[in-house]
Amino acid sequence: MSERLSEISRHMQELRDAIELHNIRYYELDTPTIPDADFDKLFRELEELEQRHPQLITPDSPTQRVGIPPLKAFPRVAHRTPMLSLSNAFTEGEVEAFDRRVRQSLGIDHAEYAVEPKFDGLAISLCYENGTLVSGATRGDGYIGEDVTLNLKTIRSIPLGLKVADGGAGVPAFLEVRGEVLMLKADFERLNRQQREKNEKTFINPRNAAAGSLRQLDPRITANRNLRFFAYGIGACEGGNVPQDTHSHLLDYLSSLRFPVMRERRTVTGVAGLLEYHHEISGLREQLPYDIDGTVYKVNQLEYQEKLGFVSRAPRFALAHKFPAQEATTELLGIDVQVGRTGALTPVARLKPVFVGGATVTNATLHNEDEIRRKDVMIGDRVTVRRAGDVIPEVVAVQKESRPSDAKPFVMPRHCPVCGSRTVRLPGETLTRCTGGLFCPAQRKQAILHFASRRAMNIHGLGDKLVDHLVDNAIIRTPADLYKLGLAALAALDRMGEKSAGNIINEIEKSKDTILARFIYSLGIRNVGEATARDLARHFGGLDRLMEADVETLQQVSDVGPVVAQSIAGFFGERHNREVVEQLRAVGIRWKEDAGIQTADHAAGSAHLEAGAASSKIAGRIFVLTGTLPTMSREEAREKIEAMGGKVAGSVSKKTDYVVAGSDSGSKYDKALELGVALLDEAELMRLLQASQADDSSTQADS
DNA sequence: CAGCCTCGAGTTCT
DNA sequence: CTCGAGGCTG
Questions:
Q1: Do A458 and A374 share a structural domain?
Q2: pTM of this prediction?
Q3: Which nucleotide C1' is nearest A564 CA?
């Protein structure tokens, strides 16, 4: 045995030496002597041996060099001035609104704009000190980017040093140039051809190719990718003869420093000028050598720009006018029917895979029967597909003129495709439902998944594959059964190691400590979501009081009307449900109960409001979160706001007090502008939170 | 009773 | 994110 081991050890040393040799040849001498595939084979063999004999791994093994995620390989750098995103407009109406706001704020009749195409590439920032390029970084989240200086230096159109025409006196002490790195369409095609020949993965579009190329750890690879750079603005600057009057002069200046500046830029006046330019560029789109996704408008006078300032994370003086979402046509291969947690049958279009808006789309929801009828969709049709809101695929329309003669209409099944129970569509409802209830495996699985979901009992690692397996093999039937699972039973499943089985058992155990609101939500009572579950928990304070409440008592809770009350009473009226709840309690799920506030719900609510509102700008106020915040998730922000007694709503209305906007915020941001709701960014929110926390503790200390 | 505001539910892809 | 529908308010 030990002799065999020493033999293996020797072989591993040979592999290590060979790999290192090829590594050096490849990276330093640039003359690889064996094909990449053979190299990979050696590497994999070593990896396998190391996996089997971990005690034989040496610290100098080439396998130890890799495995560091490339993301971490680039140092993070803070931008001197944040790289903000632009507000988007999709319609002419939105562009008109933008121009109106600009004119009103400035008190002028006609605004002049610097306009240019919007490149579909990566925003970067280049820093020059005394005329020398010292660093370059990606946009990142706008505040912190990745330092990719070495890679940027390989881009030939980026000047490494600045030569000022006036003889050198005018070189700025510091200059930050902003622009876009991109790959030309032709270079993208060529690169993909090469990648295919080398049997390496191809890129989806020029933007991804540019991003991938810029983030190579080996600058030599970047150098071979033929990336381009175009400047479009200036961040921070000190000294030099940098123009102070207009944006277009700034671009002329950058051009004089030999930065590539796009040829299609121009200045126009008023909405008419903006729209005409947009139209013109749309027409040119196909012929341009690079991808663009719209046009950018900036108020030309720098003085005006300053006056307009910023809202949240976007300048008020600029707008990105985007082209409409790209559409594509494909074939509708069939319509499947999915069964949801509440038994709702949802028709889903199976499409011949088609590339739209940056992703390959194969499925698209058709929502319900009425939707299918409205769009007159038949199986076998050619359909137009687009990604709505840039994410969710949607069937836009049917090309009726090319409908094949054998196209079949969709018929909502009379029986559930999963359990065979009858399906019903109640009069006045749009949804068709399976009547199988928890007898239906689809509904049972969804119920368990809902129970375990993050916002309910938060059992990490219990995904749909595992639930499928557990339910199909009759290992569990109800959420309560989860808590009776043994380690042995779980580890015995295929593809489930001892370790991951242990992790899940652990997570299940952890979930036993919870709060009443989560528990109520986790039961999956129809029409009772997170918000209602919280209201119920607050009102009743204990589970027994909730379970015993009749329809009338339930309706005393705010936001609970006859329909919701009936759902709740109906749920607890079923013996099966009461049994599951009993089992869950018996198995050790626990939460704190209190007396609740069964009378005068609204009075208690307003007392709460008064207590906070006296000193706080948060308690009782309604917040809406949108976009990606720089340092925390929306979820974290919500918790912080709620901890201070604030309320977080899902949509913006007149009642909204604050909209907290991050980057890439969407329609909610626009709505906030429209309604004149106060906009905050993350930093402002944090300040607000801290201020009211200070108030809170001082008032508490006083009393 | 109408219209507005919220909440619930369902969904896709990387 | 979007749609539908429940609940509240004027």
A1: no
A2: 0.58
A3: C6
